[in-house]
Structures are given as C-alpha cells and as structure tokens.
Amino acid sequence: MADPDNDDVADIQNEFDTIKHHVNFEPPPPKPGQEWRSYPELPTSRDLNPDWEDPEQLAEIHHLLPNTWQEPWQNKNTYLETHYRLQREEGITMLRHSIKKFKEDPAMMDDPETCIYTKVFVRGYLMTRLGPMCQVQFSTERSGKKIRWIQTRRLTVGTLVAISTASDCFKTICMPAVISEHRIRDGLDQNPPTIHFQWANLDDAVMDPNQELVMIETRFGYFEAVRHSMVGLQHVANTETALDKYLVQADKSDMSARYVGDNPQMDIRSLIHHVPGSSSMTASEVNAKMTEVSEPLRRYSVLEGFDNQLSQYTNLDNSQLNAVHRILTKELAIVQGPPGTGKTFTSVQALQILLESQDRGSNVIIVAAQTNHAIDQILIQLINAGFNVVRLGGRTQNEDIKRYSMYNLQRRAAPSWTQRADRDYKTFESARKKNIAALEKVIDDVFPDDIINPETLRSAGIISGSQLESLQAEQAWAPELSSLGRPVGLLAEWMGSQLVEVKPQDEKDPDFEVVEDNDSLDLDLDAEDYDLELDDCIVDEDDKAGRIDGKFLPIKHLWTGANHQHYTEKDLVIRRELQKPNLWEIDPKYRGAVYQYWQTQLLLLYRQNFRHILRDNARIAKNLKINKWYKDAKCIKSQQIEIIGCTTTGLCKYRGLLAALRPQTMLIEEAAETREANILSALYGSLQQLILVGDHQQLAPHCDTPGLGEEPYNMRVSMFERLVKLKLPFTVLNMQRRMIPSLREVLNPFYPSLQDHPVVTKSDARPPVPGMAVPSFFFHHTWTESLDENLSRYNILEAEMIVHFMEYLLMNGVKPSQITILTFYRGQKKKILAQIKSRMKQWGPINNVFTVDSYQGEENDIVILSLVRSNGPNGPHRAGFLQDENRGVVSISRARRGFYIFGNMINLACASNESWNMWGQIQRVFERQGRFGGDSRLPITCQNHHKTTWMSHPEDWVNCHGGCDQKCPDKLSCGHVCGRQCHWITHDKLICREPCERTLPCGHRCQQFCGETCACNCAEFTGAYPHDEFIDDDATLQEDGFGVEYDTSRVAPFITQDQRRMGRAAGGRGNRRGPGRNNRGARGLRSGVGYDSGNSRIPTQSQSAPNSARPSDGQSHGWITFNARLDDEQRRREVQRQADLMGSSNPFSNGTEMAIQDTFRPVTLNDDGMRNVGDSITAKATPSPEKEGDLLSFNDDVETVALAMHPLSLDTGPIDSGGLVNAGSESGGGSIINTPTKRGRGVFSNTGALQHSKTSPTMLSRHAGKSELGLDQQSRPRARFPIPAHASEVRQADKPEWELASLADTASVADADYVDNEPADGEAELEGDEGGYDDLIFF
Q1: What does the CA dihedral 1049, 1052, 1057, 1062 come to, rounded to 10 degrees?
Q2: pLDDT digits (tens, 9 = 90+) for 1041-1092
Q3: Mind listing the pLDDT tens digit for each residue in 571-583?
Q4: CA–CA gap between residue 752 and residue 921 (Å, rounded)
Q5: What percent of the chain has pLDDT over 90?
Q6: What are residue 665's phi and psi, to 5 degrees?
Q7: Whole-number pLDDT of residue 1140
Q8: Which of 857, 737, 740, 859 is nearest to 317 (CA)?
C-alpha cells in the first residue's frame, strides 16, 4: 500500500486526502517479517496481561532487536522495526510488570513502581468532539497517603492504565484505557475522586454502574511520549525519502538538497551586521558602505561557499559561517555546538536566509525541539526577525508565544476559505448530536429516572406478552400511589414494598494524615524531563486551556428491588417465579429479586447496542478531527505562515497536518537530546532537507524503562550522536561567548578545540565576583549524604554551606537573579530551597535552584554546583548520576563569571572509572589553577580590607557580615569612626552609636546616641511646663482601684494657643499603648492634679456641691465660671477624706507654698534639620494659698503616670453650636460626658462602658483608626534620689509627646495625631477662637 507521503503519490493528492489517510490510518494485514507494521496504535489485553505460561507469548514479549547504532543498518525495515519495538516496550513494559505483581498479590499496596486504585465504579460518559470519555470514581486507599492532585503526576493526561473487575483481578480480564482529562475542580478534588479516560477498545466499555473495577497505573513509561511516534514509524515504512541513504546506510556523500541544486541563488544580505571602521564614518557613509557590500549578496550562489571577505562584515565567527553554509546547502546538515558557542543564533541566521530567499508563504519550514522552552526560545528570535510563525501545541508558558497559537491564528484569519470545512463541520456535528441522542435513549431505557417501563421489558424480550397483559389488565382499577419521592405506575404498584431506592456508591477515600510528596514520582529527575504536551495530548489547542466540554450522560440505577437473600436467576425458586404468565401471581417476597434480574438482563441486552453507538461516536470524532486539520492547513496557507514550531512529540502527533503542508525543510534544535524514533517517525515524503543542531556531549535522550537505555538497546543514543560517531560530515562551532577564560579551561578536557571570543576577555563585560579573589573554586569535603523519603539523595551540611555562601555573595552586592544553584538530585534541591526560605527571607523570594537536567541551554553569571554524593572519607564510594559525563558537562558549563563546586572529590575519584574520567580531569584543572580546596576550606576575600578568610564549616559563617573580622575604619557622615566589624551595609543605612556631643539650645548636652534625634527632657527644650493643665472633659480612666479624671473646665487660662503648639513641636513620639496595658494607678497624688489616692470616684454633677466649679451638662465651657481656689479646696478635702478612710495620712501636706513662673521657648526645625529656638515667653500663676494645696509636693515613692491622649473621630454624634459632642446618659462604671471637641474627639473611662449617643464600641474603634487612649506608667522620682536604671530606658523607648517636666516631674500627656495632621489655616483660627479645648488635658 502506497503512503500518500510518497512524492510520486503526494503530487496528485490534496491536503484533505492526506489528512484523511493519517486520521483514519489502519495498519495493513501482517506479513512475514513485517508483523510490527500491523500492530494497533493502542496496546491490547494480550500485550499488557499475557499468559506467562505460554512460551509463544513470552517469545513475542522478548522479541526486542538490539540497537546496533555503531554501524550502518542492514535495511530500512530492520532499522524501523528496532525502534518501533523499543518505543512500544518503553510505553507498556512497566505497566505489564505492575499487572503481574498485582496478580501475584492482589492485596498489595502502592509501591515505587505501581499505583493501585480500588472501588472503581463507572458514573457515566462524557460525549465530546474528541470521542466518548468514561467517567469513573475510585479510591486511593492503597496509597496510604493523601494525594495532592494539583501537583502529582498520577493519572496525567495520556497515561496508559489497565482496568479489570474486582472479582477477576486481571486473571482473565484486562481492559487498557488512556487518561483523557486530569480535571481537578469537580473531579479529582471530590471524595471519592473522579477521572475521565478513553477505552483503548470500545468493546470493553463498561455500562454497569454496580460493577466494581480495579485500575492499575505505573509510575514509569509515559505512553503518550511513544504513542504517536509508533504510528509515524508505520507510515515511514511505506515512504521513501532522500534522507534514507544517510540514516540507514550511513552514506557520507554529503549531497546538496534538491531544491538548492535547482536554484542555488540565495539572499544572504542578513549576514552583514556592521562595517569595519564605522566609528570614524558619518551615518551616510556607513549606509553607503552597507549598500555597497550588501547589494552583491542579494542573489548569491551558495553552493561554492562564502567569500573570505564576508567575515569582516558579520558578527558570526568562521565556524558559525561554515555551519550556516552547511545548513543552507546540505540534505543532511549536522552542526555540533559546544556550550556557549551560539547554536540557536546560528540556526536563526540560516533560517533567515532560507526564508528571505523564497516567496513568502510558498514553503513552510518546520522547527522542533525536545522541550517547549527550547522551541519557544528559537521561535521568539524568528518572530523578532519579522517572520510569520505558528506554534502547534498548547503547553507553552510564554505569553508572547501564546499569541501565535493555532487557535489565535484561526481567530485572526478571514473565514472565506473555510466554506467547505464549515459545511462539513455542520454535517459531522449534526450526526454527532443524533448519535448522542440515540445513546441517551438507550441509557434512559436501562437507567430510567424512576422505574423501568414494562413496554421496554417486553420489546427486549425479557418478559412475555402474557406477562405484560397481566400487568396491564390491572390498569383499570389499580390506583396510582402518590407517595412523596416514590415512583408511580403499574410496575411500582406491583413491586409494592419490594421497591427500594438504590444507595449511591459513596465510597469515601480515607483521610490520611501523611501527604504524598509531589516529587515521589520524579525519582531524582526534574519535571522538564517530561516536558511533553501533557495538557494537549488528547485535546487540540483551544481557548479553554485543555478543559474538555461535552454532554455528560450519567449511568445510575435510582430504584431497584429488595433482595435480602441475594437470589439470582440461578436459584430454582426465581426461575420458577419467572415462568409464571401472570406477574401478579409471583410471590411478593420474590418480586424484588425478579426486578433485579430484569435490570441485569436489560443491561446485558442493551450493552452491545450501547457499544455500537460509542463506536459510531468515535468515528464521527475522527471526521471532526479531519475537518479541523483541514481548516488549520488552509488557515496556515492563507496567512502565509513560514515557520511552524512544535515539540518533537508534536512532530508525530500532528503528522497528518504537517504532511499535508508538504514541507521541504525540517530543523531539530537540541537534536542530541531527542530520541531517534521521534525524528525518524516525522520524515514526511516531501522532506528534502533535515537539519540537526545539538551537542551529543551534553544531555542525552531520556529513557524511563530500566535496561532499555543501556546496551544492547541504547535508547539514550540519539540520531545526532549515532551519525556523528559514524563519521558523517558535520560542522563544529569552536568560539565560545559565555564564560571567562579560566572557566573555559574547565571545559577544555572535553572540548579541546574550544576557544574564547574576544568579548569574554573584556573585564567590563565579565566583572569579577564581588567578595571573591578567585572566579572559581572546588570546595572538597567529606560530609555524609542521606536518603529522603522519596529515595533521593541530599547532603544537609553541603546544603547549609552553599546557602551561607550564597548569602555572603548577596551581602557583597550580587543580585539574587545572578546566582544559580545546580544539583543532580531533587532531594538536595528541596533541602537548599528550604534553607533559603528559612534563612534568607530578607532577600525576597529566591527560586534559582535547579536540577542539572532542567538547566541545559541556560546560563547565569554565577553558578554554584552541589555534588551531594559522599559517604565520608572511607566510603563506600558511589557516584550515581555524577558519573554520567553528559550531565557532568552540562553542570560545569553554565557559568559566565563565577563557578564554585561543593562536593567530595575522594568519593568521585574512587566510585568508578566513569566517575574518575569525568571528575578527575576537572580536579586537575582546578589544581593547576590553584583553586582546589583539598583541605576543606573556601577562601572569601573582603572587598574593604582585601583580607582572605577561609571557611570550612557552616558554623564559620555565623560571624560573617559580608566582610572580614577587622573593624571598619571608615568614618560616618557625622565624623565618628564606624568601628563595627567589617560589614556589607552602606554607612548611610547605619546609626552612629557614639554618645552625642552636641550642646542643645537649652544649654544641656544631648543624652542620645549620635545617630539619633537630639532630645532633652527639660522644660525649656520641650516647651512643656508643669502647669500646662490640658485635660478634656470629665472622662475617667480607672484601673486597679486608682482613678484618673480629666476636666477641661479647669484648663489654666494663661496657656496660649502658640505655647501649646510649641509644646507639640518639641515633643517626641507619643506613647501609643492602648487602654489596659500596664496601667497602674498613681498613689498618693493630690486630686487637684487629677489623681485619687484611693478607689473613690469623683462625684458626677448631680452629686457635687452646689458651689462646685464644674459646669453641668449643657453648660458653657467658658473660663468665666472657673474658680481655681474653690475647686482646689474641694478636691483637697476629697483626697483627705479618702486617705482617712484608707487609714493613711495626706501625703501632700509639706507646708510649702511656691509660685509658678515658667518660661516657654518655641523650638522648631529648619530645612537642614537644625533646631531654632525662639524668644522666651514667661507665664506666671499663683497657686492656692492653702498649705495643703501645693500642687508640686511629692513623696519619695510617687510614680508619675504618662497618659497618651489620641483623637477619636466620633462623628456619629451630634455636635452643638459650642463644638461639644453631646454625651449619652451615664451608666454603670462611667460614660463619655460633655467632652469639648472641635473634630469629634472624646475621652472615655476605662471601665469598658463606651457610651456616646448610639455609637457602639466597635464603631468607635473603627472611627478612631490608629488612635488609642493609652495609660503607661514610668518611675520618675525627684532628682535627689537615685534614678532606677530602667527609667531612662522606658522614657527613651516610649518618647511621649508631652512631658510636663517640672521640679517634681509630673505626668506626661500627648496628642500624637496633631503633629501628623497639622490643621489648615482655617482650622487654626477656629482652634484659637474656641480656646483650644481639643488640645488641652487638665490634671
């Protein structure tokens, strides 16, 4: 059978026929020696569950051909069959092994290779445009752990699973299926979880919702990675290409591509990048020279090579020019690019010439790579060059690339060319809807909402005509039951109490405490190893991000018959009852069992029809796929697409679409990392040129199945490596532009011809690593490794050492983005990330920790490599992944400026010959450079003193602050010497800790540190004097029996508005402690100062004497009614009375009278932060002549209470014309009463009862914002007594805004918000008019 890919046939085939042939591909009948060509796309039950006692089946399983990659193949069939069988074995052998283990031990739990899902029940079918998908619920009880479905790789889309019945357990039944949707929401997040899959064979489709199943998944061998390539190899078997002679016979003829021979003229002007000596030319001269040089290159014959003069006008070195020439001309172009030599840049330059040398849209070039990241990188460069690009597959995470997806291209395209496709689509969609309706009818008959229709039973032949008539004969008189929620009708009446509701299959998953690690499936391999189109394996790209839509048809019995004795049709009594012609004669106690028998028979009879409808639906889904690919092909041509990008998996997955476009050229980026079968299966008949760009000395293809990657199967040998080792012609790039010369020397043992481009020798392009005297170092240690719960290696001391080292580099000015930490093991990666998260939070999120396998093609300024493996100095020595030379080369070639290795070199030297051959050469380079730390010491060099410190253990970093152990000699801006240990923080961010030597305007010396704001507690500096009595109206703070009262009616009238403002300007930060925090009442203070010596409360207005000076509610708060002497006398007597009651004498009567005379000096700050002291303002007042009225007498044990008073925005209460907030009624312990306010402020008691109109305490708190009413206590005795050590510390920490310092050091009160919210001019005038009640607190 001729394949439409064949050139002779494809010339007369159109796109539609080519696509149709691929989608509907049916393997040919088997022929001797070519049996593999007839194998189906999906494995059969015999493939997964063979009879292990049958020698014939065992021989078929073991029929694997050796991959003799070191010599040419005998013939094309053997070549293709070898890779086909290896791919098939990779996809199914581990699942076959898991099934065998389960058969031997059906009670087994999950293990590192197998996942067992029990209690699997079918819940329905989702009918989508991609075909029918079965939804099942299942249990993960065998895992023993809670599964994190968002992160795990369990049941990933495209995974092959095997299903059997719970009763059979794979003894005879094995039904393969492929996971089709990994839906988390409303799926895997449910209990029990649900999943969708597609049956490999629709004849296996289960219709019985009560049939318990078991499902097995293997953790190895991702089937989707090989599925499409196997079908592609079967296509290639019928296709002859111009590349066969190279791939099969290893022909070294190195011929030119046919299309190049037909027209060797190409436009190579894009190779001209600059003109020598342009710096001395004018712009017009440069343009003229560029035109002169470029014009002859518009139509340049490329067959004979490039002119030698071209190198002086291009940015490409000679090896890159040779590579470009090979790509432009040869049928098979192989280019090896060592690390940093610009493989991708060279590929883009060649593709640019190919595209500019042809008519736009006349021919598409396919560009593919192993990973999505690699293909996106090269596509972005092509997009920036102005070419029309489309990206197949929906796995890309690059937002720029997403704009060029097939879905978005369809949206931008004009729909004129899609008329036929749309007409066909409507036809297929109409057929699909009819198919779904037919399936829905079948399901409704078997699984009705209430009870089975007797007519359905008769039409299916389950009951006889006489039995139906006997039931219908009773219809004339049988009443319809209307029980709530129960079915009605003749059959329901016949069933009677035997009709019962079916209990749902609600098998809840156990709630395990232990969570399965999301890395448990990785086995030390990074996610990028499986960077396939997981979310796009079944679903073509659309706008739903892989979510599948369709009509869900539930399958569930709602009602059944009671059958407590578990009768079946095998029981004689049931068979006898079934033979009765009159259904009413059946014993009622057997009717439930009879009904169950009817249900079972109906399901069996409808099952074949059910599966037939599913097969029709799958056929319609294929037609829809043909229709979609046809529209895609037309869209690509109409939009004149020049580049089609996809992964190497996509080359096979979209084979029909790509073959229909008849490409001539295909370029594989990172070809040495791609399996040979993936490229081989994508050789379309129209291909004339294959370009392989890569490096076989770096990462090799990945192989999941143990044994298949090594001899004799060699699945990890790529087509690239095989052809290079067979000595087919290829070009090597030899000029690296990445690393400084000393780092390149580490690579030279593996790349002897690698040279440095001049750009890497420039110090400004690659500056030295700050804090390090050497750009590279090998830190040798013998710390022992460990094994984590996922069998991955880690070395905790090595991880700590690396994290400390990274922090040291950050302290020296290296940006976090400039550092990458590499390791070979996932376990070490997790430990390092955990250390970074716990130790380096101040540096922000740092996630630059990768496994080596995931970092190919990447680079960074500084790379730290963690080798992990170590069993001490004496072993046993094991190297593991480290002995893989390909991985080792990747790990040592990522750094530009600095490269530092941490590991046990003794272990690497003694582990194996492979390990020594790899790491022994690296050790010799480091030793020759004098950078091998064999004595377990790492040198770091201080940038300030150039002193080298040797670090040998994580504990050595404790006292390292980014420098050395010397004192910092630099001076701060104030002139003092820094004196700290050598540090990395700049001096402008440090505070000088020397004593301040400045003399303040008040004449005192500043008591603060030099770096702090100057301050003095004296009244002249603060502008706050002891008679500055300014308390808002009657609000009481009381705790522990000591009351504090405020009365704004007693504010001293000689305190002016300006003086109050000066006091605020001089104050420090206010005490912002809230009510109830360390609030102890002051003892022994006179009531006139606002304190009470006992638990008594100042009586309210109704309790006051008639001649009390305090105004009544609603009374004006002017100074006219204030009688200081009368009020003083009254309060003195009240204090005396309380003291007498408590058995104590009046502590305030010391027989001293003194007049108050204080001077206020306004203190302000200028723009330079210097203090300006204004003219003195003297205030005088005469205290009460009573001896007991001395306001300034204190006992030795008196403590001063600092009250921080903050504004509260009580804007819910009405404000009268006098600016007063009306108080609510008093209750209980206190209330807010008659508080003079200008902006809605109020003071309330500390008893917990906040009453102000209708404002709740919650509202008050919300209106107050950050404001608090704080009561803080500080010990402040007279100067002649020793001052407690903590007193100054408390004052310094709290820094109250108001300090009423006097001879006796009275209390402190602050209004912190005033400084932050300076009133406007209008507010200031209003404040002055109202007497400033808002700012004064009276003691």
Answers
A1: -130
A2: 443 444 444 444 444 444 444 444 444 433 333 333 333 333 333 333 333 3
A3: 888 888 888 898 8
A4: 12
A5: 49
A6: -125, 140
A7: 63
A8: 737
Higher-confidence position of 1033 and 693: 693
Tell me: pLDDT of 606 over 80: yes
Residue 434 CA to residue 1260 CA, distance in Å, equals 67
Six token digits for residue 786: 């460990």
3-class DSSP assignment, residue 72: coil
The DSSP 8-state label assigned to residue 995 in this structure reads: B
Going by pLDDT thresholds of 50, 70 and 90, the confidence category of residue 483 is low
State which H helix or E strand residue 247 sits in.
Answer: helix 244-247
Whole-angstrom Cα distance, residue 380 to residue 399? 11
The beta-strand segments (E) located in 361-463 are 365-369, 389-391
- Token look-up 């129960």 returns 486
pLDDT band of residue 646 (cuts 50, 70, 90) is very high
Q: Which residue's structure tokens are 């070294």?
A: 252
Higher-confidence residue of 284 and 1191: namely 284
Q: Which of 673, 670, 668, 621 is nearest to 645 (CA)?
A: 668
Q: How many CA atoms lie within 13 A of 818 on its CB side?
A: 17
Q: State pLDDT tens for residues 163-188.
A: 999 999 999 999 999 999 988 888 99
Reduce the DSSP state of residue 33 to 3 states and report it.
Answer: coil
Could you give the angle at the alpha carbon of 1299 between the alpha carbons of 1296 and 1305, nearest 5°? 130
Residue 215 near residue 141, CB atoms below 8 Å: no
Averaged over 1271-1281, what is the pLDDT? 36
Q: Which residue has the tokens 């016979």?
A: 249
Strand duo 938-941 + 932-933: pairing? unpaired
Alpha carbon distance 188, 434 (integer Å): 31
Considering Cα of 1147, then 1153, then 1155, then 1161, what sign does the dihedral take? Answer: negative
d(CA 491, CA 457): 11
Burial track 684-714 (b if 16+ CB lie within 10 A, e otherwise): bbbbbbbbbbbbbbbbbbbbbbeebbeeebb
Q: pLDDT category, 1175, cuts 50, 70, 90?
A: low
Residue for token pair 């991000």:
545
Cα separation, 982 vs 941, whole angstroms: 12
- Cα distances (angstroms) measured from residue 1183 to each of 976, 1025, 1077, 1110, 1155: 49, 15, 34, 18, 6
Rounded to an integer, the average pLDDT of 48-58 is 92
C-beta contacts of 1218-1224 below 8 A and 24+ residues apart = 1218/1116, 1218/1117, 1219/1330, 1219/1333, 1220/1117, 1221/1252, 1222/1253, 1223/1113, 1223/1251, 1223/1252, 1224/1251, 1224/1252, 1224/1253
Task: Say which amino acid occupies 164.
Answer: S
Tokens at residue 556, please? 């569930």
Write down the pTM of the prediction. Answer: 0.74
Beta carbons within 8 Å of 704's beta carbon, 6+ residues apart: 90, 94, 220, 221, 222
How do 1220-1221 and 1042-1046 pair as beta strands?
A: unpaired
More confident residue, 1117 or 381: 381
The DSSP bridge partners found for residue 1205 are 1269
Q: What per-residue confidence (pLDDT) applies to 1005?
A: 87
pLDDT digits (tens, 9 = 90+) for 1098-1136: 333 333 343 333 333 433 343 445 565 666 677 667 767
Q: Dihedrals φ, ψ of 82, to 5°?
A: -60, -50
pLDDT computed for residue 1010 by the predictor: 87
Q: What is the pLDDT of residue 1103?
A: 39
Counting Cβ atoms within 10 Å, is residue 1181 exposed (0-12), middle (13-18) or buried (19+)?
Answer: middle
Rg of the chain over all Cα atoms, to the nearest angstrom = 44
The dihedral through the CA atoms of 987, 988, 993, 995 has a sign that is: positive
Q: Is the separation of the CB atoms in 577 and 590 below 8 Å? A: yes
Q: How far apart are CA 73 and CA 844, in angstroms?
A: 56
